[in-house]
Design a protein that fits this description.
The complex is a heterodimer of chains A (about 425) and B (about 120).
Chain A lengths: L1 E6 L2 H8 L9 E4 L6 E4 L1 H5 L8 H11 L2 E4 L2 H18 L2 E6 L2 E5 L8 H16 L3 E6 L2 H11 L5 E3 L5 H7 L10 H9 L5 H5 L3 H19 L7 H5 L4 E11 L2 H21 L2 E12 L10 E12 L2 H15 L6 E9 L2 E2 L11 H24 L36 E2 L1
Parallel strand pairs in A: 2-4, 7-8
Antiparallel strand pairs in A: 1-6, 1-7, 2-3, 5-6, 9-12, 10-11, 10-12, 10-13
Helix pairs in contact in A: 4-5, 12-13
Chain B lengths: L20 H5 L6 E6 L14 E5 L9 E6 L2 E10 L2 E5 L5 E3 L5 E10 L3
The chains are: A alpha+beta (about 425), B mainly beta (about 120).
Chain lengths: ~425, ~120
């Protein structure tokens, strides 16, 4: 049985744990460089704020509504994340860390198991020991477990597929919220009248394969309770895509560039994690097709890199170049996405047969610099160290972290005070 | 690999790590947090202002324990005391705070660190 365990508003919760004065108050966390809101708790959502809102636009609103604002403190988040993972590892034999705040826990299929009981125990233990609220989704496949987790967030923290009204749940679940079904797939599926997870489950497999590729077909299988996502396969992806839809439309090139740089960095981290290099970079830019009042513009461009690489500056440079080429002013953009395509193994040192010794040496140096970057980012959390160009400060270089909280758990000079 | 020449060291096989205070102070690492005491409320228990408190969230709070809890938007530390049927959070002067629904205990103090 698969448990998907996800921390509730992870970044905001990390901040709240060490600020007893913020209990029950709205909290938002900003991206590196204080660009956009990247995380917020339920109270902040209730105050009308959205993930993706640019900070300069919402600062006044936050001040008016008494919202506490934090720059992202990856040192703190990485430490809290590792604490939670150690608790999971103590309670479950097989733990797969999926992201900084999400894990899959695999339990053997026992004869008469009380999985919800185990889930409650995990939840209570993590909360008692670390202060972090988590939710648990329990299902026979990863896709369903992730869906159950979303439902758990609204129903006491634990949701078990086996104990629910399966048909009713699938019918009420929008297809765009199914794991792996992104914006473009949703749009395509709508043309076939597929709006809910139930519709998708009943989509014939051969159609799914044709229209959604092999990944989409696996999603359909997973909705039918057949584990189809193989961990190995999933980890070794053929392409890596990173994007998010903006909560508020974005119009300026500078804002799009910043978002794209952040997504490229995330994609390249994943690329390097699976020890691949990339040959093609593609960038996708779109306005909101459901917004009928505004003019529409959607474009996609890709470029081949000189040689396959995992060198972030080169990949990011290519992505930004593509974005600048397709950007048109006067539109309200909803989404920018970077896609790394044509991946291959990065086991041999890269380079061309006829490369000069200088170029080979440069490549070797680049390799060790990237390894250093990866090491720091894996130790202190993604985004700790990034390229200068992705840390665009309005009015100067260097990262803006005006609302950074202390490293409560890792810096002896920054301990919380007790009275 | 270093070359070994001459006689092997007689201490070989007896190497030990240096003393690690974590093994003394930290029993459950993911649940252990450190905080800094401000003020002299706990002098009667030998805790001075500026001392570092070791707090274990996994340790069940029992009467007699020093516990850190949330109060009026701050962390406070007091002794958990039983008084008849009731539990109180009390300081050295015997002034007690009643435990109610609002009281959230952060953790139990399991050690104090102080440099002289």
């Amino acid at each position: 049985m698969i448990f998907h365990v996800d921390a509730n508003s992870f970044y905001a919760s990390c901040e709240r744990i060490f600020r007893p004065d913020l209990e029950g108050k709205p909290i938002v966390v900003l991206s590196n460089n204080d660009g956009i809101i990247i995380a917020l708790n339920d109270e902040a959502k209730g105050a009308g704020l959205r993930r993706g809102d640019p900070w300069f636009k919402t600062a006044a609103e936050c001040a008016r509504k008494g919202v506490s604002v934090f720059s992202s403190n990856y040192t703190l988040y990485a430490d809290m994340s590792s604490r939670i993972v150690s608790v999971y590892n103590r309670l479950c034999p097989e733990v797969e860390v999926y992201s900084i705040d999400e894990c899959f826990l695999y339990f053997p299929d026992w004869k008469c198991p009380d999985y919800p009981g185990i889930a409650h125990r995990i939840r209570n233990t993590v909360y008692r020991e670390t202060g972090m609220p988590v939710s648990v989704g329990i299902a026979p496949t990863r896709t369903l477990a992730k869906m159950c987790n979303k439902l758990a967030k609204k129903s006491g923290g634990v949701f078990s597929w086996e104990d629910c009204d399966k048909e009713g749940v699938l019918e009420a679940y929008p297809v765009e919220d199914v794991w792996g079904i992104g914006w473009s797939k949703t749009k395509m599926l709508r043309r076939y009248g597929i709006r809910t997870a139930k519709d998708l489950r009943d989509f014939p497999l051969e159609h799914a394969k044709k229209h959604l590729t092999i990944t989409g077909m696996r999603t359909v299988q997973e909705l039918r309770e057949i584990p189809a996502q193989d961990k190995e396969e999933r980890e070794k992806r053929q392409n890596i895509c990173s994007s998010k839809s903006f909560g508020e439309p974005v119009s300026s090139l500078a804002d799009l560039e910043e978002a794209l740089s952040a997504y490229t960095h995330e994609a390249v981290s994943r690329l390097r994690e699976q020890k691949s290099k990339v040959k093609y970079v593609s960038v996708f830019l779109m306005t909101n097709p459901w917004d009928e009042s505004g003019p529409q513009y959607t474009n996609q461009a890709s470029a081949a890199l000189e040689t396959p690489t995992s060198w972030l500056p080169e990949i990011q440079g290519a992505a930004l170049e593509l974005l600048r080429g397709m950007y048109r002013s006067g539109y309200r953009y909803r989404k920018v996405m970077v896609n790394l395509l044509g991946l291959e193994d990065d086991t041999v040192p890269q380079g061309e047969l006829f490369d000069s010794p200088e170029r080979s040496q440069t490549l070797k140096n680049n390799q060790s610099l990237m390894e250093c970057l990866d090491e720091l980012n894996s130790r202190y959390g993604r985004g700790t160290l990034r390229l200068g160009s992705s840390a665009r400060a309005p009015g100067g270089w260097g990262m803006q972290r005006r609302f950074l909280s202390p490293a409560y758990t890792t810096d002896i000079r920054a301990l919380p005070e007790v009275h | 690999m270093a070359n070994e020449t001459g006689f092997p060291s007689p201490a070989r096989g007896y190497e030990a790590n240096t003393i690690d205070l974590n093994t003394l102070m930290v029993h459950n690492a993911p649940a252990t947090f450190f905080m800094r005491m401000q003020g002299g409320q706990l002098i009667y228990r030998g805790i001075l202002s500026g001392d570092m408190l070791v707090i274990d969230r996994s340790r069940p709070p029992m009467p007699g324990c020093l516990v850190v809890f949330r109060r009026e938007g701050e962390f406070a530390c007091r002794e958990l005391r039983r008084e008849g049927e009731r539990l109180l959070l009390a300081d050295g002067c015997g002034e007690g705070i009643k435990i109610d629904e609002e009281t959230e205990i952060f953790g139990v103090v399991t050690g104090v660190v102080r440099s002289l």
